[in-house]
Structure formats: structure tokens, C-alpha cells
Amino acid sequence: MDIEFNRNEDLLKQMVDELNHKLEKVQKGGGEKRIAREHEKGKLTARERIDYLLDKGSRFLEIGALAADGMYEEEGGCPSAGVVTGIGYVQGRMCVVVANDATVKAGAWFPMTAKKNLRAQEVAMDNHLPIIYLVDSAGVFLPKQDEIFPDKEHFGRQFRNNAKMSAMGIVQVAAIMGSCVAGGAYLPIMSDEALIVEQTGSIFLAGSYLVKAAIGEEVDNETLGGASTHCEISGVTDNKFESDGACLDAVKKIFDSLGEQEKAGFSRKKTVLPQKDEKEIFGLFPIDRGKPYDMREIIQRLVDGSAFNEYKSDYGKTLLCGTARIEGWSVGIVANQRKMVKTKKGEMQMGGVIYSDSADKAARFIMNCNQRKIPLLFLQDVSGFMVGKRAEHGGIIKDGAKMVNAMANSVVPKFTIIIGNSYGAGNYAMCGKAYDPRLIFSWPTAQMAVMSGSSAAKTLLQIKVASLKKAGKEITPEDEEKLLKEITEKYEEELSPYHAASRLWVDGVIDPLETRKIISMGIEAANFAPIKERFNVGVIQT
Asked: Can you give the residue ranges of the CoA carboxyltransferase N-terminal domain (predicted)?
């Protein structure tokens, strides 16, 4: 191995270590003291409940682990947005699990909590997966109520989704394992079955303090909305259980009796490991964004048997298109080629840039995958579309629009992994979050923004300097240098994959070696949602 390979390997492993450190911290929720307090009440924590519920030794794909990372610092932070969500297996049945983390502000809903809950419901709806809610929440975090209560994608949307999922035939089971207050009380009760834990579980529209303030009535919370009240008097909940474990066992029994689901029928064969060592990705992927590399080498370490059947390999070379298998599942791959390429006409094309010929090729390939019912995987390391007179005269906007049209109207499931750059319209064409990928994850090496850090910083500096000069202020070269440093640092922070993950622009940041698992579980989930819609691109840009 050469020096460059070893350097890349060391740096990427350091980045994965940083990621693992962040995830370990997040998994402690509100901290050891808060975990101990839950245990004193006889309760399991959110993650302990999920561990107990899921099939032993089975996979769990966490979604939004880094949501709210670095946000709400004035309120003491909100690790993982105060809720744990993901895809797992209960009694062999793939499902979505949502568990409020009572160690984080008593499970109160922050704005990002609502966004994360809605993302979990979206995953269930897109893939027709059953969903389990493990409820333990003090309700809306009142100081932030204006950011969570009234808008379309706010708190109330989850109850709309409850109703829509029920109409779609998606199984919803709720276990009330702690507080369930105010509007939040509708979530478990709009589920198909609502279970409750004695002594610790409670559900009411208004707690005892608010009841006294509103109507002057004095009543304790257990009498007002405890397990006995709702199972024996109101009939709001279905069955009560003496402990978290007993309640979760009942959820397992429900899942053990579920009927078979329809399938989409995506092709799957026996899993074969890549022939080329996956771990070599660490050395092959350059940490220096200016360095070229061959994306084929990355793909060959992600796909079964390292077999990549390329489409139009000699045309539109800055995008690689082709079919492969990942853990047995057939998949169509669209990936940015990052090395310089030469066309048959002798023109040099820059790696990571989408040209007219590559956009044209990708559009056709995407349409072919829809015709053949093959899920799509986008591997992003894109700087954007080609610019300049030659590109504009060649119709780059028209060809880019064609690719976006085919991708946006795809009816096969789409998955996106951002491994490097994700800049500007390139993010859109390569199936960014706005284009409904079933799952979208980043490697620690990813960056997402309108443009690269250096380009943006220089542009922002010019705007700032012009504004200061207009105000009559003299700017020295030293002042400019200081301003550029400040602007660059801020912009670089916003480029970070953790900035994107904290806001749920991506579902998480992953070790590159997790990529195969994520795509495989994603296609397995998507296979439970038969394709009913006909592929139609509308008016194509010819």
C-alpha cells in the first residue's frame, strides 16, 4: 500500500472514531443520573425497551440518531431529539419503532422531536411497515410551542398520519409506558391497539394541576388517567400490564399473529460478499476533496461479488450507471465518477461534474430501471452541473432537467448515500432529500451546501466588503483576511454532515462499512410496498 492510501485510511478511521464517540454519547440520552431515576421508578429506558422488544441478534437500523445534535443548547440540549426511531424486527416481522426518551426533558417534544416522529411515520407509510409507539412523554416543550404546534409539518401532523396509516391498512400498536399528555394522548388511542403499564403509565388531556386550574376539581393523576381508570372505567386503553417487560411481551404476541403482507416483488438472490475487500474503501477514498479517485473501485467494494454491470460505459463518463446486487437485492446504481475523463472527441471532463452527455445517460438509465422494477441507489460525490458558454450552448439545463424529471417521477424506491460532495443542483439531480429517497445517509466525509466552502466564502466576502464600503467604512487587506477566516469557519461548520444530520436533512451519518446493511434493509422494507403507480415522466426535455 502506498503512503497516500495509508494517510487516507488513518484519517477516515479517525472520522469514524469521532462518529462512534458522538453516537455513544447520544445513546446515553439525558445521562447516567436520569437513567438511574427511570430505573428507580421500575421503568426501562427507551433504548432498553427497544432492545427487549426486538428479536435477539436481529438488525436494527436507527434513523435520526444525531437529530438535534448541537441544537437547543440554551435549554441544555436534546440528545437524539428526545426520541429513538428506527427499523427493526419483532417476531420476524420488519417494523418501525418509535420510543420517547424520558431521560431527555421527560420526553418533551421539541421542534426536532416532531420532525423526527414525522420522519419515522413517513418511513412506515412509504414502505407499508407496521409501526410500534412506545409512549413516555410530558408533551410539548412549552417554551418552543410556536415552533411545534400550528403548522402543516408540526405536532398535529402525526395524528393526521395515524388516521391515514389506519386507512392504508398499516398496523399501529401503542404501549403507554409513562406520561401521555394533552394532544399527545391521541397518538396511542388512534392506534389499532393501546396497551398501558400499571402505576407508571398515564394518559389524559389535562393533568391534575391543569384540571384544578381550569375547573377547580382536585384529583390525582392515577385516578384521572391511570391504567385502572382507562382499562376498567373509560375503555380508552385495551389492556394493562404490571411492568414494562410484560407490556412489551404483549406487543410481541400481537406481532406474532399478524397476517402476511403483499410484496413488490424486487429481485433477490443469495447474498455474496464483495470480492474486493470492503475495508480498502478507507484507503481508496481521498480525504482531500481536490484529489481524483475512481468511483468504480468504491462500487466494487460495496456490491456482491464486486460485479458491476455498467450501462453505456464509454459515454457520459462523469456519471457511472449500472446494475449490481447488494446482499442479494438487485439495484440500479447512479454514481459520480471523480476522476478526470476524456471523451471520444478528445475533450477532458472534470470528475464530480455532471455534463450534458452524462445527464442524458443517467436519465435513460433511470427510466430503464423503472421499466424493469429495479430499485435505484445514488452515490453522491457531486460538485454540480457544468457551467460556461460551451455547456450552456450545448443545452446543459435541458439535459439536467431531463435527468431530474426521470429521477423525480421514478416509482421504484430510491436510496441515497452521500459519500463526498453534495453541492448545488447536483444534490437535486442525484436524489437529495427533496426527492423522496426512502433512506438517505451520509459518510463522515460528506459535505452538503449550495457550493463548496472556498467558493462560497469568497462570494460572501465580496458581498460583505461591498456592503461595508457602501456604508463608508474603509477595509484594509488585513480586515479582509480576518473576515474571510470568520466566514470560512462558519460556512465549513454548516457543510458538516453532522449539521445535516442534526436537522434531519439526512437520516444519519454512518461508517462506510454500514452501507451494504442500510441499502439491503431499505430495499427489504420497500419490498413490502407494491408499486401501484405507473411510471410517467410527463413532458420530457428533448
From this structure: 12-270
